[in-house]
């Protein structure tokens, strides 16, 4: 009887250790990198975004903040103010994962391309976000989990849907000729992702898709690309490059998380994309047309 009493706690402890060991063994061995971009004039707005990203429920291995050496999208030279330089120093001290990456200005797509310059492992997951948005603590987890579920489904069915996971995707409806509409259900989207709420990519989407890595860095690599529009509207460009180079195989995959991925979005300022006159009709739509409205 005494031996049985002693054995019960020991067996229970052994069972718990076994479960923990299995959980560790089953945990995905993947690297998660959060990536965003900013430039002088916007740096003063970035603190809430970075602090919310450093406090995510899913461990983030690195936060890449791409800071272009020269901002080519404006007609004037931009330099960091003393306030912005001090803020970046403070954030680097407070957030160990933060890496400030000086790079080329690829337009709005710098939020992803900056990280692609640094991250080369096919299995690495890059989550892109905006610099003026505070995110829910489970935002990164929801996107990454959906991407890992996608990988699991692919192992069972090679023809299963594949593509970057996002919360918002817009598309043109063939039966409604006016405007662009948001997809309200989860799953594949025959449209373009909206990156403001967050998007998760596997590096392999670009490294394993012939031509994707080459084209995504060069807006003029295809004849006829409306360069200004595609540089300005990175959501269309990134969706379009993956769609075109994969022959329609890689498309945005919408996630419905059950919570708002965004806690707060700062008011727009003079550097916001919506300040561009006729930004949709003269810039976004020509880029969409080049990709056949993503069919």
From TrEMBL:
Keywords attached to this entry: Signal
Signal peptide: 1-26
Superkingdom of source: Eukaryota
InterPro entries associated with the record: Nucleotide-diphossugar_trans (IPR029044)
Name listed for the protein in its UniProt record: Glycosyltransferase 2-like domain-containing protein
Natural source organism: Rhizoclosmatium globosum
